[in-house]
Amino acid sequence: MQALILDPDGQAIRDREREEGYRTGYLSILNELNIAALQKARSRLPDQTQANLQIGIYDATVRFNILLIDERICVAQPYLPKNRGVDSPTFVLNPMADGRRPRPLQHLRPAVHHDMGKPTTVVTNHAALLAVAHDAVDAAHDILLTRAPGQLTAKGDRDMASEVDFAIERQLRDLLQRRTPGIGFLGEENGRTGATGDLVWTLDPVDGTANFVHGSPLCGISLGLLDGPHPILGVIDLPFLGTRYSAAVGQGAFRGKAPIHVSTTTALEQAIVAIGDYAVGRDAADGNRHRLAITARLASTVQRVRMHGSAAIDLAWLAGGAVDAVIIMSNKPWDTAAGAIIAAEAGARVSDTDGISHSIRSRATLAANPGILPAIIDLVAAAADQP
After folding, report:
1. Is-contact 116 79, C-beta < 8 A?
2. CA–CA separation, 121 vs 113, rounded Å?
3. How many CB atoms lie within 10 A of CB 106?
4. Is pTM, for the whole model, over 0.85?
5. Domains and CATH numbers, the chain
6. Above 70 in pLDDT, residue 50?
7. What's the CA gap between 44 and 341, in Å, rounded?
8. b/e for 220-238, b at 16 or more Cβ within 10 A?
9. Pairwise CA distance, residues 248 & 242, whole Å
10. What is the dihedral of CA 324, 328, 332, 335, to 10 degrees?
11. Torsional sign, CA 129, 176, 338, 22
């Protein structure tokens, strides 16, 4: 997703690149690509609207913010430097490949309030971005399914990354930065790159690396999109199980193309509860005291306890009703962002240990159908108080 200014001679773009720290030439693509996009967009609009856009093409005193999303959506918003703060129309198009007149897209929301005197506007279209996420995960699916783990890189006490982890992260980072250059990227293996705004892709290239290395099918790709501290869409693909889960905020959750919903279990003694891995590394013993106390309480209370070794699987299976609750006493965005939005869209409540709604700032990830989450929160709190 990229917001750019129409600037016929390129000088304003060069000034902006220098002032805002962009790489030289990063915004200059405007002169060719965005003028052509605006002309194409104008040609597909009704005559009356074309007249409004025509001013922007031939009169340099009126400029436009151009937003291209996945090469299929164009948003042209004029702003008048001499009349800052004056509202002006936004034209939203979906150019159709077959040449038919486009229908205006619905469900577009500003991710940033637009000051007409500033050359930035970001619009999030969940359907378009979810399609990009699926395309990215398609590429990762093939890598995970066909390549051996290769050489392992130690990341600390009993933790590692495989060659496949790095290969998937590199490929998806490049693909997503090419398709959505205005959105940042946060990968488990190589950290944050790209744009610095609120919208950030977050990826666990192989969630369940230890399982993958040992030949277990319980591993997958987890790709989420964050808007600030909250996930707004996610895709979890489990290649060895042949299943994919996805969701976007306000649009429900799906396994493949079928809608899914959390279970209706209302009693802990009837619940299957998935728990996250025990801690490794420095201070693992301290962290595991609480985890072991939770496990002990679950063992004497719930129907069954499961440890799948993958937060993505835990949360996806919660969304589909295969487990009734999830307790993960950690919270890394690449581990939980996609699963949290998928579970929430399937009807789960997702919270921190104190019951406050979950975000990437939460210390832990508790999720369950609404009927039993309060009991899960109480159980985790009681385990913390256990001597």
Report:
1. yes
2. 8
3. 8
4. no
5. 2-124 (no CATH), 126-259 (3.30.540.10), 268-384 (3.40.190.80)
6. no
7. 36
8. bbbbbbbbeebbbbbbbbb
9. 21
10. -40
11. negative
